[in-house]
Every structure is written in structure tokens, then in C-alpha cells.
Amino acid sequence: MINHTQNQYSPFRSFLKKFLKQRVAVISLGVVFFIILFGILGPYFAPYDPGRPVTEQYAAKGIDIENVTSSRVGLTGLLSDGTTVEQLPRLFFESENQRVAAARISSEGMMVSAYRQGTTTISIKAGEIGTVVKADVSSTEEEAPFVSYILIDPIAAPVNVRDQFQLEPKVFISDGTILETREDIDRFIEQYKDEDKKDDGFGKSAAEVETGLQFASSDETIVSVNENGLVEVKGEGEAFIKVSIDNVSTIHPISTAPVLEPILTAIIPDDTIIHLTDIYKHQTPSSLHWFGTDHQNRDILSRIIVGTKQTLLIGFLSVAIGAFVGTILGLLAGYYGRWVDSLLTRFTDILLAFPGILLAIAVIALLGAGLINIIVAVAVFTIPIFIRIVRASTLSLKEKTYVEAAKSIGVKDHIIIMRHIFPGTLSVMMVYLTMRVGTAILIGAALSFLGLGGDITAPEWGAMLSSAKDNSRNLFHPTFFPGLAIVITVLSFNLLGDGLRDALDPKLKE
């Protein structure tokens, strides 16, 4: 007995083989699956409540706000004998703009706390010694480099009266550059002293340098110094030379006798630019918030995950309604022809004469804004497409022999349509269903972006883009990540539709 089961043709097996050969379509199917999974289980995946500011949720998650908004900066003291110390005398901190950030003493040296977005310079002073650092709080502006601190190599032995020597200060710039010659220092000061002199209402720019390198003696009867840093010892005793550029300064002690106790000559910070986070809005992407936060300080990742459900709801429901109505009308137009076909075809032509987004806006204008009305608007935009493709398939299928045979034996029209013609249109409908979901999501997001959706505070991707557009002109993440979610979703559905079309094409050989 011959077994013919292995040679039997299976349409599903043939379709599966064709589909699995298309790697892009298979990957797109996997992406679509995960998107749908997020849509169903989104609230369980979201790390934060998408409707509340994250600062209200930090305590419940055991996050100390001070650790997020503050940064400890180590300060090292350089003594006159070349050694360093960690324990510094009483320091004085002055922030140029205390609305942005302020500093206070800490066990490590200095604690800088952020209050709002922006930049400010912080002066660290101990007597005649001054060092400058910058606090950058979630700012996207590029600041010019600035002088942070100055060092001078210590003198190894006591000096004698009438000795002369040249001071060679080293100027440390915030970008890591070290200026060791007077020519380099003067060139840097000339380059930046006139830059960005416009007052922003909170103080001068960090790059603005008002004076050049200056030298001053604490006691001219013991030590004198000229404008080029040439020192002359005039008498017995001890004095110091102060070298400064605006608020940045160091001192250089000079003594004709051995110095028993070295003194502090400079303050060296671990970081010249301290990057901080403004936790009250527009937090940049970080380990705490992967996609950052929006203008109301809500977690963008959580809103995208939870908003997947509403976005997919618009896509699936609108396409389902449009496909259902369009399929019925397309079957009727193709099967009955004559005045029914003429009437429905003219109706389809009228709807297709309008661009999709304008047709959807017209429907919203009639029905009003809201999630349900968006679904209806996108469904109306979808109906004529399905009328046209189903009608074309029906015109071809009703001429088949098996349909003619069913008519000849008296089978009723609705049975012929549902049993013999409708199944033949399914393959084409599946392809367009998949591809129209992506288009529907795009149209729905566009309507929400234009403010024609429902609740503008809801975590819907189009509404998120609209809010970000109005509240984050200089930030990329509030618009980038919702936009990326729309692109990936629409692209995945379109690529999946292309794969289904190729797999269901009977002309395409395995």
C-alpha cells in the first residue's frame, strides 16, 4: 500500500516555508509580538507611575533625592613645600547663580547641590587663594573653557636679599589644558575675555575674563614684583606674592629665613566641571531614567510602555472597523455590480479624493476630539481602501466555475458570498490589515500631535510628542524616544505586511 500523505500539498505549510525564508519579516513579527506584549502587560513593566512626577515616587523606591541632585567634589590643598593635604582650613563658597546650584562644605571637601537647569560658576576661597569650578545642571549649552586654578612650583631653599628670580605660573583650564608660558596665558585670555559678555540676569558668563595675569606683593619693603612676574628680594623677613586671574589666585611665600610651617598655596579640585541633574523636570537619560523625564517630570520610558496599549488600540480597532465595513461593502459592490457597484465605487472615489490626514481631521471636526472619535476617524479613512481591494477580488472570484455552479443549483447569494467568495479575499485582506495597522497608528499619532485626541496628559505617543514640542525646545529626548517608538512600530507592521504579501503570493515559487 502506497502512503501518499508525504506528497499531499498543504497551503499552510507552503505559506510557512515562504514566510520563514524572509528574515526581515520574521524579525518584524517578533518585534510586533513584543510590542503587543507591552501593550497588554505595560503597567506591570513600567518602572514608574506614568501619570505622576518621579520625585513623588522616589521615597517609595528608596531613592535619596539628595544623592541624585548633589555631587561631592574632593578638594586637595597644595602646601608651600610641595606636599598636599586633604584637611583644608575653613573654606568660603560663592555661587554666581544660586538659583541653579550652590555649594557647602562636606567631609570630602565640597558638596554641590542643584536647584534648577542651567550653569553657574562656583568660587572656592581660603584667604587669598581662589579656585573656580563650574556646575552644569542638565544643560545642553556649550560653555567656553575657563581658568580653574593656578599653581607655582615651590622654592626649595630660603632666598637672600637682592636675589631676583622669575615666577612661572601654570594656569589650569577647565578642559584639561595647562598653560605654562606667558604667551599661551595671554593668548587664552585675549580669546575669551570678550566672549559672551551678554548678561543673562543672573551673573556674568563663566568664559568672561576681565583681567589678565596679575602679580601683587603682600609687603613691598620685603619683596617686590613687576607685571611680568620678576621678583626682587629687598629686605629681611617673610612675604608672599599673589598671582591671580580674576577670582582665581594662588600665593607664593618668600622668606629670607627657613620656614618652619608650610602654608596653603592653592586649592585643587578633583573635577573642574560638575555635572548635576535637575530632578524637577527634563531629566536627561540616565541609569535612573533610561529615557529621561518630560516637562512634568514624568518618566518617559514608563509613559511609552503604558502608552503602547492606547496606541495599539487606535491602530487595531480602527483597522478592524474599517476592514469590517469595507469588506462588506466591497463584497456587495463586486458581487451585485450595476447600480450597487456604481454607487459604492463613487462613494469610494470621493473618500479617496481626500488625503488621509485631512479626511480624519474632517471627521474629528464633525464628531469632536476624543479617543473614540479618533478611532472612528481613522476607520473612515480605512474603509475605502478595503472596499477597493475586496471589490477587485470579488469581481475576479465570482467568475470562477465553482461560483457559477453554486448559482446554477440555487444557492442563495449570501451563502455564496460568505462561503465561496469571502475566503478567497482573506489572503489579500491579511496583507492590507497588517500594513494598515501601521498607517492607522501613524494617523492616530498625528491627530493626537495636533491636539485632536482625548486627554492630552494621557501617555499616548502622539500626545507625548505634542507636549514635548511645546515644552522642550532645546532637548532631544522628550521627542526622540516617543518618535522612535512610533517609527519602530509602524515600520515593523509594514515590513510584516510585505512579508505576508510575498508569502501569500501564489506566483512566488519556494
UniProtKB/TrEMBL annotation:
Pfam family, one: BPD_transp_1
Domain of life of the organism encoding this protein: Bacteria
GO molecular function term, any single one: dipeptide transmembrane transporter activity
Entry-linked PROSITE patterns: ABC_TM1
InterPro entries reported in the protein's UniProt record: BP-dependent_transpt_permease, Invasin/intimin_cell_adhesion, MetI-like, MetI-like_sf, OppC_N
Gene Ontology cellular component annotations, sorted alphabetically: plasma membrane
Protein name: ABC transporter permease
Organism classification: Bacteria, Bacillati, Bacillota, Bacilli, Bacillales
